[in-house]
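Ligand-bound model needed. adenosine-5'-triphosphate.
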Amino acid sequence: MIETEDLSKQFGETWAVDGVSLEVNPGQVLALLGQNGAGKTTIVRMLASLLTPTRGRARIAGFDVVQSPEKVRSSVGVLTEQHGLYLRMTGLEYLEYFGKIYRLDSTTCQKRSREWIEYFGLVEVAKRPIGQYSKGMRQKLALARTLIHEPPVLLLDEPTSAMDPESAQLVRNAITSLCTEQRTIIICTHNLVEAEMLANKIAIIYLGQILTSGTVEELKRSLLGPAEYEVRVGGNWPREILNLPAGVTPLAPSETGHRFRVEEPQTSNPILLKELMKGGAEVVALQELPRTLEQVYLAAMAKVKRA
Ligand code: ATP
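Prediction:
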């Protein structure tokens, strides 16, 4: 649904995006992560045909962003940092206006506008000029606009910025339910907890290039190493575990239990458990130690800065 090859953009002397090749399939949510100025917004703007690439190509739903900008624009819903809201219009007028631009018939247009206004809790302000909306209300309205024509591709730059926690949750739920088998979503976010919740694929961008990409699990493994597990026992810890499975390395015990680094948990953990029981351990829990996307991101940044 989204394909780029060597996608690049130069502003003056600076390559804001430099050789980005990506493939995002229907049903996938890709989170673009990276420092301020890494090039995320520039990628999104090229994918939405709002900026022309200097080099390389990108296709959205089969349409080339340079050759078929109209088709691309009707296939994407794009939320950028500059919302481009018309401040004198009311929220409801604004959504209906965009519905018409996308050539929805007036019944569908009104129905969808009301539904999104209701979904985002904007009913009370729907007939007030947008100029009177708070930052979060504007963000919700802009998001409703990106969804009005039910596009197969959503490009969402910081979708929950400026939102209170309840509204942010509402938006995250909307993103999750919008990610059907027919739809592809890219989100740019600095909120790594949010990225981990929503995305099934991550790309970390650094100085306009993809530093690393993959599923959260793949990135955890490649940047943080094999998973670590903690075993808690009821009574005493066995004196020795005779046959520690291959690929299982004991680590220093913590206050809460004994820890192991496990290369292949699927195959090794059942054997480890059996061996522990054989040794007389009363196993209460065998738990993976949580590792966050934030740890992954910081490890990736530390690695590139060391290089
Ligand atoms: P942020 O997390 O702060 O939103 P970003 O990753 O989205 O950052 P971009 O906005 O894509 O980063 O910017 C990438 C680089 O391109 C930056 O160095 C920025 O200054 C530069 N840039 C972006 N737009 C323009 C422009 N219109 N003209 C000149 N330089 C630009």
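Residues 11, 14, 16, 34, 36-42 surround adenosine-5'-triphosphate (CB under 6 Å).
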